[in-house]
Design goal:
Blueprint (H helix, E strand, L loop, with lengths): L19 H17 L1 H10 L16 H8 L8
């Protein structure tokens, strides 16, 4: 990464259309990870800690929008 972040970009998990059962499964897994703390643990592993094999760190703290979404999971984008 070069320089500071200029803006927050909401991202999504792409899933197939018109499959409410699959969407419910994906939503449930991600929500469970957010509630259990596993989501933050994985975020810290890949965005805050050194990454092998070069042990470089991205050093990108979690945005307030993502922190808020973890506290109250939703399938709506951050505003």
């Amino acid at each position: 990464m070069v320089g500071d972040s200029l803006q927050v970009e909401p991202y999504a998990c792409m899933i197939r259309k018109n499959d409410p059962k699959f969407k419910a499964l994906v939503d449930g897994v991600i929500t469970g990870m957010m509630k259990s703390g596993e989501f933050e643990k994985l975020y810290n592993k890949w965005f805050m800690q050194p990454i092998p094999p070069r042990n470089q760190s991205i050093g990108l703290p979690m945005s307030k929008e993502l922190q808020d979404n973890i506290k109250a999971p939703s399938d709506k984008p951050a505003t």
